[in-house]
Amino acid sequence: MNSDTIDPNGHEDLALLEGLLERSSFGTDTSDLKARTSSEKAAYAVRLATYLREASTAPQEPERTAEPRTVRARKPGTGGSTAAAKPTRGHHLEQEGMPLHESDGAAPLRLLTLDPPGKHWRSVLAGRWASELRSTAYIPFSRDELRLRLLDLVDHIADALETPESVDEAARLVGNRLVEIHATGQDSLPCTLAILREHLAMTTASSKTRKSLLQTISASYFAAEITSAFEQKEALKQAIERAKLKADQALRSSEERFRKVFNTAPTGIAILDKSGQFIDTNPALQEILGIDTHNLSSMTIHELVHPDYIDFLAATLSNLTEAKSSYRSRTELPLMCAGDRTILASLAFSVLHDTNGDPYSFVANVEDITDLHMLQERFRYNAIHDSTSRLPNINFFRIRLQDELNRSHRGNLLSTYRIALNFDSPPSTRAIETIVQRLEELTESENSILACFGDTDFAIAIQHSHQTPDESQFAELATRKLSAPIDSDSHSPTATVNIGAVRNTDADATSAHIMWAADLALRKAISLGGGRWVVSTHIHA
């Protein structure tokens, strides 16, 4: 039967409806139906046909065996007369005085029994309930899982309607379960009540029982929702407290680690404000400066820097605060310490920013590199000086000679001498020192470069002036002065002298060319015998 094509006024449709009721296990009194108005018949026919269609299309479920019982219904106006209904294996529901449409004002049409074959109506109700409930809230279950959960609630409701004293318990269970499955959307409860109200209207349960059931579901739902909200609030509060406790513990642990590193670091560490005022200093910095933390707290770092570097330090810190990409800077500055000491310090600055990204303080790492600097200077000095005479060695001489050539103008004369000494016995350190002193005396009035290529091998470069002797005169003076005895006694060592001299007149000559020519002239002088010198002007540039 199609509910959309029923004509309650037609005798043929009415006969079909009556036959349907007789063939079904509903057991409705058709005489009561015939006494209704056409509109009442139509409403009932539509509702019944819709219900039957939904029940027939619902998935079949295994039936649970129930003890059959006889339902006796009161006919309107009979004052309690009863009629035996056919026992079935289904679930029996009762309804008394439920109007088909609450707004039409019609007298209630009483169903004696409503017990579809099997329990298809429960599945229909659970399926519709699940479908509409999913649209009201996010429920973390699949459609099938939600339908099974709601079917269990429908079973509880149906069982409770058979024993009215258990209705409240079943209703409370429904309200609590709805909150447990997170059906707590704004429309979740109204949707549930509307669906249950519609389907329960088809049962034989009294309106008072149905009303009590729905009211208890609403009350238990709100109570469970309040309890759930309170529990969530408490859980959130506890989670916040645990997170705060964990954060506090992490902060204390971090501060303890920082303080341990700060106090045990071998290098000095200072925390400064934006003006350079000391906020905190570690023991290593206090030891480096020889100033305790109490006195440092009243000072700025600018007071420790040598006056010649105060502006440089101020510019460094200013640039650091304005930097967009780099927050670190390293420099070396002399610092004035307690006891009028001055040290060379390596300063590494980093800037700290607040949550808004604005700089608010500096961290300065201070390391005393005085000894390291002196060692480096000594290493550099030894790398370019002779270890015995302390004069520039051949490498340094070549560099300085080239610098002198670069500064000279065309036409300026530059003479270079290679001097070789041959002692009659191994020279002592004092003998070498005496030779160096005599060479310095020979060149003290000249713009010259004096170097030592070995214990007894020397070189001199002289930029000519109006009083500079020519190469032969200078070679003669040097030979006479250097060949004199080291001491006045007769056993003092003496040396024979050979000199190779080069006069540079080639503006394109380099230091390598000149040293090669001077070396060639010295070899020629040595080949001529002791006390001889050779002057050359032939330079291959």
Automatic annotation (TrEMBL):
Segments forming domain PAS: 254-324
PROSITE patterns named in the record: GGDEF, PAS
Coiled-coil annotated residue ranges, if any: 226-253
Region (Disordered): 54-91
Pfam families referenced in this protein's UniProt entry, alphabetically: PAS_8 (PF13188)
Superkingdom assignment: Bacteria
Segments of skewed composition (Basic and acidic residues): 61-70
Domain GGDEF: 414-538
Matches recorded under InterPro entries: Biofilm_reg_signaling, GGDEF_dom, Nucleotide_cyclase, PAS, PAS-like_dom_sf, Rev_trsase/Diguanyl_cyclase
Keyword annotations of the record: Coiled coil
Keyword Coiled coil: yes
Protein name stated in the entry: PAS domain S-box protein
Organism: Saccharopolyspora oryzae
